[in-house]
């Protein structure tokens, strides 16, 4: 009785998997049929019926390969490929359409049917849905490709290089003095900062100058708030009537640093996040609030150029320099911690904050996992952020007008004092 029940369950499961293989083929066929809906019956190489049957055939081929003969799947796959090639060849001679996307979709449909029956239903379904989406968005994908610039494609390829090629090759173990250096984790942090810069760059690229200073300032903080500060400071000398708006853009860009700090902490050292949340949130709010005030009181239609993004956000040289800086800071942090204790960490944070906040933030969040007290890491991060924003306030005052410098410097000072007090209390 148990054997009969087992066979019944197995048969039902097989029937369900074959049904899914059929439906996945029908899904892709639905998209293919919709694209060729204007053509008469018989003029299409493969529509909804053909794709549904090919999906089912893929499932049957997997069953035959598993239970009858191992050659069943490759032979049937080659048969489908041959039939598709014959049909494609006949169509090319008449319509001069050299695209093989439909043929590849047909072969994928066969494979998805086999995956649904022999491997995993969820995987087959996900792949089929993604394939249908890609096939359905031909115009949008080609449009994005037409807008893509050479250095942006280069940036995307370099992001893949440092992520999927270089990262897995690095050893995941401590090295150097006190085992302070972990090559895998250092490079993983490089990937993290590079990815955020990549997203920020394209946020500005897609938004465009027509979205105004508010949008540009908010998202420029992801890629280069220093570049935006210099750009808007120069703009203030030629557009004095919109200085309040330019100050709002600078404050928004500088304030965007603080959500980034929280993201780093959440990813690298989640236990540090509750301690960082209050001081970092308050520091960001004290920059966002006056920025929004300036925006609301002086809003008008503006057509200023966005900050020039002439620098590739993912230059490999820049990524390597960041990794070297991060490793140096971690070594100095370990040395200063042993020599001066907490005072050495604070000195390092203040010095690093003159040029960059990301490296010291990632270093301290990493060190908070066991090398330093979490409260020391929090105060060090706040010191670095405060010093970095003071440098930007100095740039605004030095390269911009006096009025712009005042509008930027006062909120910066308030943010600095509040952050230091709250970090000290935490």
From TrEMBL:
The chain crosses the membrane at residues 15-34, 46-65, 71-90, 102-135, 155-174, 186-206, 212-233, 245-267, 273-295, 316-333, 345-365, 377-396, 408-425. Residues 18-142 form the MgtC/SapB/SrpB/YhiD N-terminal domain. Residues 191-400 form the DUF4010 domain. Coiled coil: none annotated. Keywords: Membrane, Transmembrane, Transmembrane helix. InterPro entries: DUF4010 (IPR025105), MgtC_SapB_SrpB_YhiD_N (IPR049177). This is Uncharacterized protein.
């Amino acid at each position: 009785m148990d054997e009969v029940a087992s066979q019944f369950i197995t048969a039902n499961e097989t029937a369900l998997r074959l049904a899914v293989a059929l439906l996945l083929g029908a899904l892709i066929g639905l998209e293919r049929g919709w694209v060729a809906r204007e053509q008469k019956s018989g003029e299409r190489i493969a529509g909804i019926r053909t794709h549904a049957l090919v999906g089912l055939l893929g499932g049957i081929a997997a069953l035959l390969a598993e239970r009858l003969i191992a050659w069943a799947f490759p032979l049937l796959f080659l048969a489908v490929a041959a039939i598709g090639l014959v049909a494609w060849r006949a169509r090319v001679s008449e319509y001069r359409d050299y695209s093989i996307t439909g043929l590849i979709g047909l072969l994928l449909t066969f494979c998805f049917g086999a995956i649904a029956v022999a491997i995993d239903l969820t995987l087959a379904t996900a792949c089929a849905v993604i394939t249908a989406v890609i096939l359905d968005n031909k115009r949008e994908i080609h449009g994005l490709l037409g807008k893509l610039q050479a250095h942006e494609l280069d940036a995307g390829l370099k992001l893949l290089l440092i992520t999927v090629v270089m990262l897995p090759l690095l050893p995941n173990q401590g090295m150097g003095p006190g085992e302070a250096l972990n090559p895998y984790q250092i490079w993983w942090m490089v990937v993290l900062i590079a990815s955020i810069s990549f997203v920020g760059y394209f946020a500005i690229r897609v938004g465009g100058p027509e979205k105004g200073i508010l949008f540009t300032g908010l998202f420029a903080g992801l890629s280069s708030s220093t570049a935006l500060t210099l750009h808007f400071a120069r703009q203030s000398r030629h557009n004095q009537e919109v200085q309040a708006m330019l100050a709002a853009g600078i404050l928004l860009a500088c304030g965007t640093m603080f959500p980034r700090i929280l993201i780093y902490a959440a990813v690298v050292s989640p236990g540090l996040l509750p301690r960082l949340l209050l001081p970092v949130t308050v520091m960001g709010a004290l920059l966002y609030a006056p920025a929004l005030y300036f925006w609301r009181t002086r809003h008008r239609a503006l057509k200023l150029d966005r900050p020039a993004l002439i620098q590739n956000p993912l230059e490999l040289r820049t990524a390597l320099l960041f990794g070297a800086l991060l490793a140096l800071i971690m070594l100095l942090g370990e040395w200063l911690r042993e020599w001066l204790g907490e005072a050495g960490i604070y000195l390092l944070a203040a010095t690093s904050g003159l040029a960059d906040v990301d490296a010291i933030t990632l270093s301290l969040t990493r060190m908070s996992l066991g090398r330093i007290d979490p409260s020391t890491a929090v105060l060090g991060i706040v010191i670095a952020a405060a010093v970095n924003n003071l440098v930007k306030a100095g740039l605004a005052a030095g390269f911009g007008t006096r009025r712009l410098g005042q509008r930027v410097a006062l909120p910066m000072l308030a943010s600095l004092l509040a952050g230091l007090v709250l970090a000290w209390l935490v």
